[in-house]
Specification:
- 6% of the residues are buried.
- A hairpin with a 2-residue loop joins β2 and β3.
- Strands 1-4 form a two-stranded antiparallel ribbon.
- 17% of the residues lie in helices and 26% in strands.
- The longest helix is centred in the middle third of the chain and has 9 residues, at 28-36.
- The chain starts with a strand and ends in a 13-residue tail after the last strand.
- It is of the alpha+beta class.
Length: 54
């Protein structure tokens, strides 16, 4: 998941300071909480076999 904006947070005894677009490296439970309030979003994964080579 990636940050949707710059933010600082203190969650469950841990401090996080993340810039917009950075990958979140915390635990899954914290990620779900931050996603619920809009600070994180799922990263889109590239689909395999979709290159336009001819």
């Amino acid at each position: 998941m990636r940050a949707t904006s710059d933010f600082k947070a203190h969650v469950n005894g841990a401090d996080y300071a993340i810039r917009k677009g950075e990958e979140f490296r915390g635990d899954a439970r914290t990620a779900e909480h931050l996603k619920a309030i809009g600070l994180l979003a799922e990263t889109k994964k590239a689909k395999e076999g979709t290159d336009n080579e001819r």
